[in-house]
Amino acid sequence: MSYIWNLDDWPNLSWDLEQLTPLLTRVSHEQGRLLGKMEGLGFDLRNEAHLRTLTDDVLKSSEIEGENLPADQVRSSIARRLRLEISGLVPSDREIEGVVEMMTDATVNYDSPLTEDRLYAWHAALFPTGRSGMSKINVGKWRTGDMTVVSGPIGNEKTHYEAPPADRLPNEMKAFLEWFAYTGPMDPLLAAGLAHFWFVTIHPFDDGNGRIARAIGDMALARAEDSPKRFYSMSAQIRAERNDYYRLLEQTQKNGPDITHWMEWFISCLHGAINGANTSVGTILQKSQFWQRFASESLNERQIKILNRLLDGNFEGKLTSSKWAKMTKSSQDTAGRDINDLIERGALKKEPGGGRSTSYSLVLED
Fold it and tell me: In CATH, what class is 300-362?
């Protein structure tokens, strides 16, 4: 099987700009509208949106690789790195700290040069134990062996992709990093799509190439916006379109130098991420308006904790007194008093039904 990196002209790739221009124009417009909307929010709300986006980015980028991280640890780790004061901070595992360190460095320090040493540091942060699962890997340096992406049971594997041989990696990465340092007059959204595809095609590490490729793409987008704050998550959208993501990568890596279809998918994926951010902004505004209503109210820590969970939309199932007691480590009687107090204040309402199935929901203003 011949791959794109075998082409005589590699890495000189091309695309149909005329075909992509209408989509680029539309997405650039939506991107500008979102950033303008965020500028209209207060400082605290922008920080909340930034924290939500980075948390989503870390969680979803790991999910794409089949790894589920605890959201509370990720959010706490990011908040500490961004020096944001939020309630409910929890300790974070070493592996989570490493993932967060890479992602925040890529976006917060977007204007710092992307170098070989910086990529080594990202890789070492991703694999602090020197292992991927049970396997020992080369950490903080290019791979020294062949790299094949396969799926399926042993003995019946399907080969999806073979990366360039290890002896080509120094020159391959030198060319990539020189281009990334100065992408020229290329549309910055296309530059982000090309950076993602180019890096993941080289596949220079033993593991973690997908997560680092997505971090590089986010870095390119932050550089295009000249802002360290992220308000939309490409990784979340890629996670939602994971099957298409892998299919487009495989198809493009097995074809000629024209990568129009990949670029079209990448920009469309960005469009979806921006649309998703508009929903997130609505949630943040709703949360802000809710707390403005109760700014002068004296609520206890248990009430604030549960209300924030409900407002953030990460509460599983319906709120009941037994869930309240379990989540706040309080008695059933205390949970009942807390809930009844919030009903009297107009923050919660009782849902239809009764007995053991009694549940409660937020009272939100239109």
Answer: mainly alpha
